[in-house]
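input
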Amino acid sequence: MTALQQHLLDTYRTARLSRPAPPPPGRHDVTALRNLYRRLRPTTSGTPSSPPGTTSSPSGRTSSPSGV
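output
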């Protein structure tokens, strides 16, 4: 069943029960994606982040624990 078919069925059911119709499919997609992007976006603390287990030297270079 597609999202449109499900919406039409839900609209029919709510009309029969004298309830408000559900929002159309895709109405809140932009808001949901924006919130997901904000949650997953890395925080900017002003310093570049380095992978765990690496150290940063004063020259700005990063070195791995194994010396590779």
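quick obs: The chain has a mean pLDDT of 78.
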